[in-house]
Design a protein that fits this description.
Elements (H helix, E strand, L loop, with lengths): L2 H12 L2 E8 L4 E8 H5 L6 E8 L7 E7 L5 E11 L6 H5 L2 E8 L4 E8 H5 L6 E7 L8 E7 L7 E5 L1 E8 L1
Parallel strand pairs: 3-11, 5-8
Antiparallel strand pairs: 1-2, 3-4, 4-5, 6-7, 8-9, 9-10
Bound molecules: zinc ion (2 copies).
Length: 173
Amino acid sequence: MSKLISERIKKVESEGKKAILIDCERCNRKVVVPVSKTSIIESKTKYLPIAYIHKNSRKDNPHCLLFELDRDFKVQLSKAVDCFFSTQKEDKDFQKLVKRDVYIYCERCGETITIPIPEYMVKDSLIPKTPISFVHNNKFGLDQHCLVAYLDSNFGDRDTRLINMIIIDLFSY
Ligand SMILES: [Zn+2]
Ligand SMILES: [Zn+2]
């Protein structure tokens, strides 16, 4: 294990969190995810879906590692997906991108929301259904959460998944 990783584990655990080590296919290395212990112990479901948003030191956008944790802190189904934030709509670089609006019902917001998905995220994808995560607040600007939409190459067939637990950590690996 690299010195950087072991130092990071030490730091996370000294803050009273559990350090979860996961291989991120996009960073091409292990990342350390700081998870609040109580939220896992008190979780009402057997597997808790978590989105870990992070970036690496390469010229890559922040991305989202989706996974599930069981109550023994075992990792299931981890996958790195493209990610963007509703606040990026204000961003000049984001405005320059070619986007496609998709309309998706968000259970947590209790309404249909418009997601301006950058086209390249779907067009450059090598898989038939591309998961894209969208971090946003409710209409009162509170309660940040993450909706994952699975889009086919026509931006259709929109299976969705709601992730209530997001950890945003823009420390670069
Ligand atoms: Zn990564
Ligand atoms: Zn929502």
